[in-house]
Amino acid sequence: MPVPFTIIIPTLNAASYLGTALAALIEAGPALRIIIVDGGSQDDTLHIAQTACRLAANVQFINAPRGRGSQLAAGIAAASTPWLLLLHADTMLSPGWFAACQRHMAQTPDHDRAYYGRFALASPDARARRIEAIVAWRCWRFALPYGDQGLLISASQLHSAGGMNELPLMEDVTLIRRIGRAGLAPADFTATSAAARYERDGWWARPARNLLCLALWRMGVPPRLILKLYK
Questions:
Q1: Is the dihedral of CA 155, 157, 163, 164 positive or negative?
Q2: Mean pLDDT, 10 residues at a time, over the chain (231 residues)?
Q3: How far apart are CA 212 and CA 227, in angstroms?
Q4: Which domains does the chain show, CATH number per domain?
Q5: Phi-psi bin for 99: left (phi > 0), alpha (psi -120 to 50), beta?
Q6: Which helix or strand (DSSP H or E) is residue 7 part of?
Q7: What pLDDT does 30 receive?
Q8: CA 32 to CA 34: how far, in whole Å?
Q9: Pair 183, 114: CB distance under 8 Å
Q10: pTM here?
């Protein structure tokens, strides 16, 4: 019998990705619950989410104050399963992800370890492969995955780590730092994110901007100010 768990997807003008992502996730079956948490989209995100709710009984749609941390916190509060998968709307999971999640949950009877996916970008550009390698090194060296890799975590571990901070940015890094290296492990699935920001901002300018945002956060700059640079 599969262990039930909930995928929580924060959305904001995610119509370009959401339909494809939901179609792939819903196929996993009734053991999976999906909560879409919208922060005030102005595109077709609401229509796509409501259509999914009508077609699949395991999909739920709620609204929350804008900000990924606030939206994730609302989704976590609405979930009732012992495990959660925090996932960005523009992230696609590799084939076999559901079975991998089931294995990881079975391997963690004490609910004391969270799992993050291997980062990939949806682009054939060779520069995307270099960025993927850098992210893999960052995760290995610093135990610092980001939210776009997905995070499979038990509700009890999340509670022990202080829950989800309702931040507009850096909510993922804040949580990962509280979990610590001992409470993290790589998952046996790949999380492929849209490459739009990299293609728009530049393959090296975008990572440099992300690194600057991280440095400012470590220096104590308020996330609401860092958000202006991140966008």
A1: negative
A2: 94 96 90 96 97 94 96 98 98 97 96 98 97 97 97 98 93 96 98 95 91 91 84 72
A3: 11
A4: 5-198 (3.90.550.10)
A5: alpha
A6: strand 5-11
A7: 82
A8: 7
A9: yes
A10: 0.95
